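ARCHIVE CARD
Drawer: 12
Card no.: 0347
Subject: one protein chain, sequence and derived structure
Cross-reference: see card 0346
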Amino acid sequence: MNCEYARANAVLYCYDELPDDVRHEFNQHIQRCAECAAEVDAVRGLHGVMAMAERAEPSANLLAASRIRLQEALETTQALPAWRRWLVVDVSRLMQSVKLAPAMAAVLVICGFGLGVGTTYRLLGVRGSNTAGGMVAAPAAEASIAGIRSINPEPGSNNVQIKYDKLVPDTAQGSLDDPRIQQLLVYASRSNMNSGLRMDATDLLSQKSGDERVRQELVYSLHNDSNVGVRLRAIEALQPFVKQDVRVRDGVLEALMNDASPGVRTEAIHALEPVKSDSSVRHVLETLERSDKNQYIRHKAQELLNTAPEMN
């Protein structure tokens, strides 16, 4: 181990982040090198000073928003298949250890060329078979929908009729359990400029709020819809799930802290009644009781806190 490496990794050494074998070499090096030992002592001194400083606790607003963003990121991130993880890891190690000797480089080039040819052949074969066999094209993607014309629930049944525009007007009809119907309702709740249609879509989606994916869309409407009525309908549909679904709870907390409508914030306080003893909920309520600009919100937050059990 040389001095350059030791100085670059002094912080990791002081925070016990080095592997055991590297740490052993590091210990031996600083016993021989006075300059590197002084560098480690300086880092330890800085570490000690920083440890004395009081740690700032994250605000309830930041905590709730971070939980939501993390959940969204985890749901949209797809893990690599096992064989791809193996390939990436092992090839990277091979590149580092072998340094790509000429013969090995030639083998890798030949293998890569062969895989590329095989993939191209398969793609062309699939495309040709689909065309020759006269297969019907898949349903148009959401991006091809120009807008939702109307939403008409069928009385006395679980069915709903949705008229929407693509390149030409089209109609879809089916049960609320139909993924295609749900997709169109989500599209209407997010994209249509007609607030009445958004309200209809949100109202129908609320009937399937037991589905986690539908609850995610309702949370989205609660945070982003410009119509107060839509946000109120979303929070009403989410209320039964604040106790069992942490994401719903965080979504309601964020609405309580940030929504521009006092009515939505008041409904958020009512929705949080079943979880008023939760530490994050209490933190938000205490903050609102002390410093919220709306006197009624301060009063409602105080009322809920007064009925919450004391925390030991």
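Annotation on reverse: The radius of gyration is 29 Å. DSSP finds 15 helices and three strands in the chain.
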